[in-house]
Amino acid sequence: MTDWSNTLAFVVFPYLAITVFIVGHAWRYKTDLRRWNAGSSEFLHKGSLKYGITIFHWGALLTLIGHAGGMLIPQRLYDLAGISASAHNFLAYWAGLVAGLLMVPGVIWLLARRLKQERIAAQTSFNDYLLLVFILLVSAIGLYNVVFTHYDVLYSVAPWIRSIVVLAPEPGLMEPVPLSYKLHILTALALLGYSPFTRLVHIWSVPLTYAYRSYVLLRRPA
Ligand code: HEM
Fewest CB atoms less than 10 Å from the CB: which of 47, 173, 197, 219? Predict the structure, then answer.
C-alpha cells in the first residue's frame, strides 16, 4: 500500500467510522427511540430462532470480549501477569476459533431462517438482510484469518488500534499486515459506522436490571 492509501485506510477511515458511530447513535436515540430495540421475530416463528440466535450471540459476545481484552491491553501488561506472547497467541487462536465457529454458522442460520420462513421474510427489510450479510462477511474473514493466516497481531494490529484510541495514530504499523487482516479490519470499521442505523443498537440496552428487578405479582381476581 502506498503511504497515502495506508493513511486513508488506517487513519482517516477509522476516525470517520468512529465519528459516524457516535453521532449516528445520538441521532438515532433522539429521533427514533421507538425502534431502538432488537426487533424480535420470535413471535413470528419461535422454533427456528432458538439455536441460531443462541450460538450466534455466544460467538458475538466472546468475539467482543476477546478483541477488547486481547488488543486494547498491551502485551507488556500480560508479560507482567506471567502470560507470554506465545501463550497469549495460543489463547487467542483457540478463543478466536471457538467464537468464529459459533458466530459464522449462527449468522448463516439467522439469514437462512429469514429467507425460508414466509412470515419472517415478509417482515424483513433490505436493511435487516444487509446487516446479517455484513456480519457474515466480517466474521467469515475473521475465521479465515484464525484458521489459515496465523499472523502475529500483538506487535502490529494491536498497537495500531491502541494508537487510534489514544488519538496518536501510527498507520505505519499496518503496512506489513496481510491483506486478509486488512480486509477484516476495514469491513469491521464499516460495520461499526453502519451499526447505529440497524437493530444492533440493542447492544447498548442490555437488560442488566432484569436480574434484580422486583417480582411481578399475579393474583386471581377475587
Ligand atoms: C449484550 C447482550 C445482548 C442481548 C441481551 C441481545 C439480545 C437480542 C435479542 C433479544 C434479539 C432478538 C431475537 C429475536 O427474538 O428475534 C437479538 C437479535 C440480534 N442480535 Fe443481539 N443481543 C446482545 C448482543 C448482541 C451483540 C454483541 C451482537 C453483535 C453482533 C448482536 C447481534 C444481533 C443481531 C444481528 C440480531 C438480529 C438477528 C436476526 O436478524 O434474526 N447482539 N439480540
Answer: 219
